[in-house]
Each structure stands twice: as C-alpha cells, then as structure tokens.
TrEMBL record:
Domain Calcineurin-like phosphoesterase: 59-315
Region entry Disordered, spans: 62-90, 588-607
Protein family: Belongs to the 5'-nucleotidase family.
One Pfam family from the record: Metallophos
Annotated source species: Streptomyces rapamycinicus (strain ATCC 29253 / DSM 41530 / NRRL 5491 / AYB-994)
Database matches in PANTHER family: 5'-NUCLEOTIDASE (PTHR11575:SF24), 5'-NUCLEOTIDASE-RELATED (PTHR11575)
Full protein name: 5'-nucleotidase
Biased composition (Basic and acidic residues): 598-607
Keyword Cell membrane found: no
Amino acid sequence: MPARPQRRGAGLRLATGFAVLAAAAGVLTAVGPAGADTGAAASDKHRPGRTVDVQLLSFNDLHGNLEPPQGSSGTVTETEADGTTKTIPAGGAEYLATSLRNARKGHEYSVTAAGGDMIGASPLLSGLFHDEPTVEALNKLDLDVTSVGNHEFDEGRAELSRIQNGGCHPKEGCYEKGKTFPGADFPYLAANVTDEETGKPILKPYTVWKHKGVKIGFIGVTLEGTPDIVTAEGVKGLKFHDEVETINKYAKELQRKGVKSIVALIHEGGLPASPSYNYDCDNGGAGKGISGPIVDIAKNITPKVDALVTGHTHQAYTCTVPDPSGTPRTVTSAASFGRLYTDTTLTYDRRTGDIVRTSVKGAHAANHVVDREQPKAPDMTSLIGRWNKLAAPVAGKPVGYISADVNGRGSTAYETPLGDVIADGQLEALSPSDKGDAQIAFMNPGGIRSDLAFKASGSEGDGVVTYGEAFTVQPFTNMMNVIDLTGSQLITALQQQVSGANEASPRILQVSKGLTYTLDLTKSGKDRVVTDSVKLNGEAIDPAKTYRVALNEFIAGGGDGFPAFKDGKNKLVGASDLDAFTAYLGAHSSQSSPLDPPKADRITVKK
C-alpha cells in the first residue's frame, strides 16, 4: 500500500488500506493482543531499546465547531479533590490547535486520530459552506486519520466523497475566487459501509501509520444503526454492517499483512456514571463505571485490536474494558465540540511489532481540557476570520431577543425550554389552514444542537439571537411535514420514545403547547407513557379521531426509532424547521420585550 508523506516529519507517513482513515485516539499502555507474552517474557520485552512509546492523540464529534461553542455546550465539568465540581470554558479550533501542538512536543512518535462526526450538524460558520472550513482546519491540525460518523452522511455519499477528494460544491461552486476546495489530506475510514450493489466499502476500511519502523493499523467504523438516525436520502444505496464483525474481519487482514498493532476508531459510544471529564470509570473494577453500546462491542472485538477510540454519545471517558481473552483494553472518548482531547501512550515492541499488553490495567491515557486560557493558534484565528467575513452578511442578522439562557442541548431534563420554543414555532408555522392545519408539533431532541445563550457571542449585544446562532441550534434545514395520525397512532408514537429501539436510551420528543402527558419512569417499556394522561388542550386523546401533526421530515420518515410516524397520511410539505424557528423568534420577541424561557412543564415525569 502506498505511503503518504506527513507534514510533521520526513519519516512520518500513512499507508492507506482499502478505506478512508478512521477516527479518534484510544487508550493503551500495558495492553496487548491475544498471544502476548506474560511473566518473564513480558518483562524481557521492556529491555532498553526494545520498546518505544507512541503517543496517540484523539478527539471526536467536532461537528464543525471552529469557534468556541456557546452555553453549556462550551464547558466541561471537572471533579475537584474535595469532591466538588466546577465548570471550565472549553473548545474552539484556535485552542484545540494549540493544545495538540503543545502535546506533541518532545514526542518523536505521535499520531492524531478522530472518532467521526468531524462535520455535519455544524454551526453556520462551517455549515453555510458545506463544512469546507472545518476540513481546512483539520488539515492544519495535522489530523492523520478519522472514521466516518453518522453525520458524515447528512448530505449523502457523493458529498462525503467530495469532502475526501476535493472539488467545488456541485451546486454552489467555489466560495473563494481562485480557490478550489482541496479535500481532506487525511483518510476517512468506513470499513462497515458498503455499496448495496457491489458489496464493496465506499471508502478505505483501514490505514497503516508508519514511522521509523513502527507500524500501527487503524480500522474505522460508524455505528451499524446509522440509517436510523440519518435521512433516507443520506444513506441511499448504502449498507451498514455490524461493528464487531467488521473490525474482526479487517484485524485479521491487517495481521496477515504483517501489521500486529491495531487501533479501532468506532463512532459508537458509552455513558459514564459521572459527567466529569476526569471521572475514573474503572473505580470498583475495570469498566464498572460505563454502560451503553460500546461495552458489548468492546467485549467482543478480537484481542488483536489493542485500543478503541470511540464517540457518538458526546461523553468523556478513559475506561478499561476486558477483551474476549479477559485482558484489559483501553476505551476512550473525548466528549465533543473540541472541548477535550485524549492523550494515550501505546508501548510498541520493535521485535514483535505489537503493542505490549499485560493483565495489569496500566494503560496511560487521560483526557485533557482544551481550555481558553492558553494562547490562540494564529493560523486558526486567520482561518476563522476569513470564513467569518464571507458568512457575515447572513450570520450577524438579528432574528430575535431572549431575556436569559434558553437551554436545549445543554439541559439534562427530558423536556427542555428550547425544545418547547422550537415545537411551538413549528406549530405556529403550520397551523394555518393553508399551511397544514396542524394541531400538534413534535421535535426530536437530537435535532436540537445547542442552547440559546444570553451572553453575546460577538458584537451583537447580550440577549440578541443572530441568524448564525439560530442556525447552530437547527443546522439541518429539514423540511417540515404535516400528516394525519389517529389518536391511537399518536399514542403509539409516544410509546416508541421509551420502547423498541429507544427502550435502553429513551428519546423524548419535545411537544408543542396544549399537548400534555405523564411519563412514569417507575415502569418499563411502553408502559412508561401513561396513556390516559395524554391530552390536547385538556381533552383526552381520542384513539379513533384524526389529528394533524407537524414534524420534520427526518422523524416523519421514521427516524430516531419512530416508525409510527411513517404511517401518517395526507402529507403536506411546509417551510424548513429553521425558517419556522426564526419566524417564531421574530414574532414573539423584541428588544424591549425579549422572550422568556418557557417553564418546560408539558411532560410530567414520575420517578
């Protein structure tokens, strides 16, 4: 496989396999593949000159956040020695670049990887230009490889190919005179995504990083359930395969090619027991402090793989989960939005070509805060300024006013104030008889990508909501649909929030004014929705009656585990979700009378 020269040193290169490079860094130190020597043999491996430490830097779920994220999306929680917690402002490409460059100093062997969702669901600065600014920034960050995530498919396969290979946008052309988008100079890996007709991976499944005789293979996958959380058009013609089976397959292939040190970049994650980035999730035993899909994945991936870099859940953890042979293996995630990076040490045995692993935890991996007290990287400041100048005519326009923070993504409650605002905006936009005659509106929580922060992000002034800030909250520009649902179908949809695909991790829809019900978390499955409590404007939902329901095209197509919505009849397509949101802000706020955060009291939660 041909090697690709890297900017950080003449001897550093990446040899790409059958797929585009994959994502974020894993945690390894004393963990090795099946068949690794133990006891005296393992001790012998540490003779001077025999081993070399390789630094693995990783991050995940950047989502085009080049500027510091606003509100709670721009902070991390840290637990202090006395058990108290504090929040630290974090994130922004200017600071991430400085952090990574400082971390690399003094490390002869250093590789940087990412765990997917580098682009997609991005703020206006990147999203307005189809994420070209983010790819340019990642090139400057010297990213070596990333896996694809589900959001890399938001605009479909052809656009993902353009992101990798370059070229101007097919409809909007080139954004800067005399400049053609060069594409990513790092590989995107998509081992478990194949063409439905040919059965072949759409991008390279793996790549091999090489430096002065050291070889480390990277395999990249996204979650098998990507089609459930991306629009049908985005994954058209593609098939997504089991993460474990795919990684095990390509780990064997890499070993046949003589690559024995392997890191898996997996865009699927877990849920630590604490929100603090420095929480020890091995407290009480290896991996005892983490749950979620990544646990079973980690337990079943072949011991040939030495570390797992993960993502998707936007959580922070450096955990140890035993592999199928019972040997500890590091599993890491660096939260999201560039607020953290993970630094992992991989001890490489030059004679065996393998990562040294023992039965002792010993993995040297830690998450580090990308704080905003450090100097900004001048090249990132210049990049952000250049693209901001292009975006300014659109981004800085005021669209509304708020009296305080309106929390959405940053809220831990099932019903959020911003969710209520968005649902009310959708109802208002689609309730006129000539717009759909909607009586109810639902908003999927995953589509709310940020908060509305009272503090000004620029020169607009406190309390001013700009178009750019509204876009950050609703970046997908999904078209709104209005459909007929019977009362029975409507209740089934509510039950699907807490059953079926959503039973383990409930997705609670944000509801418009007038719709109320009780969520009883002392029960299980669909019984958690108290059916006789579901009311519209104080009247019980009639199972036989037909209701007009507004929702975005993604969940109208059954996305996020809501197949009941696919049975809707008499569909009418309306304005985009972003247009509905900005129109509502404009109609219900002014400089003299800003919008107050709603009480978020439509869903009664019983615990």
